[in-house]
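Worked example 4.2. Below are the chains of a multi-component assembly; read each line carefully before continuing.
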Amino acid sequence: METAISVENISKYFTDKKRGLIKAVDELSFRCDAGSIFGLLGLNGAGKTTTLRLLATMLWPTFGTAKVAWFDIVKQPEKVKANIGFLTGNTGLYLRLTPREIIAYFGKLAGMDNVSLKSRSDRLIDMLDMGEFADRRIDKLSTGQKQKTSIARTMIHNPPILILDEPTIGLDVLTSRAIVQLIRDAKNEGKCVILSTHMMHEAATLCDEIAVIHEGRMRTQGTLTQFREKYGKENLDDIFVAILENGGSR
Amino acid sequence: MISPRKIRIVYAKELKDILRDRRTLYSMILMPIILYPLLSIGMGALIGSQIEKVQAARQQVVILGEQHGPVIAAAIRDSDKFEILSPDSLHRGLLTLAARDSTLDRRVIGRLFTDEADAVPDSIRNLIFSRAVDERLMRAVVRIPPGFDAKVAAGDSVAFDILFDGSDTKSETAGDKLRDWAVAYRDSMVAATLDNLGLDDSVIKPFWINSANIASESRMGAMILGMLLPYMLLILLIVGGMYPALDLTAGEKERNTLETLLAAPLSRFDIAAGKFLTTFTAAMVSMVLALISMTLTAKYGFASMAKGQIAVSLSADSVFWLLALMVPAATMFSALMIAVAISAKSYKEGQSYLTPLLMLVILPSMVSFIPGFELTNGLLFVPVVNLCLTLKEVLMGTYKVWRILVVFGTTSLYALFALYVAQRIFERESVLFRT
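Applying the procedure described above to all two chains together yields the following structure tokens:
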């Protein structure tokens, strides 16, 4: 399978007035393939969000680099951004615009021309069943309708790579289902999906491969089957705890 | 990488976004148009009518020692300009006051109403009468000393005391009116004496004094405009741009939309530029609307206020230079506001950061109110002060083009520096992701 994301020894350090140097991400390396779903698992503050922000070129790595969709995140950040769809569970939307306007805004920023933008936008609105509220202001919409708008916004330029940071956090069952469906569809279309979560069962049902990170460092990486064999446990949460407890050699 | 196309996309979206917000419509459009004219006309009318009221009213005056000068006392009564209260009523009022306030001595108060009033030190007397003014027992006191009529008749000079409290508007007016009345009364006495001696008025008035204000009506209007407008316009640049600057930066952080924009395929520079241009536009629109509305206000509003039909007109040249100067000024303020607002976590925090910035503009802008404060060569380089004084010259038509160009140049330099700072702040991860 084709490699869509390759991360090589990437590190991101912050300096905090109280705590001094923080190694939010510390020499991480991993690969994700096209047509597969890659899960980043870890506790709160493990470095998941920072890793994804590095891949989305919102942050600059302190050391190391990564290739996302064949482009270097340090040297060609805008090419990278043009090829990713970025979504988080608490993504906000412009309250005074309509879903159609928001979708068009991000389509235009991705460099789409008016004709392809219109047809793609109409198709997404149709697919996500947004027709009824596509021209209503965001502040008049329900949470589910907003989430659909976010999905359409993420997918408007048909990116080969999706970067999803805790995409279902704080969403109700119906709304998170829409996200899960999006992830599955993306995989079937041959896209590479990288998502972060701290819920093992979500990772287990979706991900082809899982990486567990802790305090910025890689603990272990593999498929769920491999983990079950290695740790001799069936329960996913137990495996996760076992990895955190004895998986490290720090 | 800078992309004018993407800056345009951001700019168009931000404009649409803020124009759909009622708060923008208030701060950027409605307020500059409505509020200032209302305020200046309203205040003007109120102050004007209040002044007239005070002038026309008959102030309460107490005459002490009336028996020493019954003629002049009767003349005061006859003038019908004052409401004469009896000394007894004042005396009673003060005694009631003394019952509550131990600092007032009943015996001292009593003495003030006798011929031995001079024995009371002035400071104590003033204190007591000031309290009486505070308590609205009266507004002024006239004191006729013993032997007044006799001395006047003998041709001796004698004092006529008027006591008022300058910190009380009505009391001050009473004092002024009493003095004017006394001067006129004395003049009439002099005229009568001269007449008795068979002499003409010109003996004591060797020449007449004619002083005339030769400024044209438009110059007077320009002076009033020149004082007010620079201050108002500079503040409106800030007020008009403040809301978009906040909403598009700290507001986006608060609503979790900034992250999405940062992950979109455009550079930080493009984002910052789009937001800056939106703020700049709002500031300029506000300022121009206010300029139009205030010129009209001045034309109709001040005229009714001053009753002198002061004509106000701005020449095409003045308008050109004014707008030209506003461009770097709006650039400087907008860039500063963006730089400050993006550093805030939330809309509210941003507001508290921007308020001091507003003060930094308001205070130096007040130089246009200081009489005789003019644009010296050194001041040409002081930000805001140079703008304010140049705008004043432009409005009054006393400008020199070279000075405008120097101020335009220095302000542009400051504006470029502010833009540079704003752009650098926009590149900082710690600022953008500060939540």
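Take a moment to check your reading of the output against the notes. The two ends of chain B are 27 Å apart (CA to CA). The interface with chain A takes residues 1, 6, 9-10, 13, 16-17, 20-21, 252, 255-257, 259-260, 262-267, 429-430, 432-433 of chain B (CB under 8 Å).
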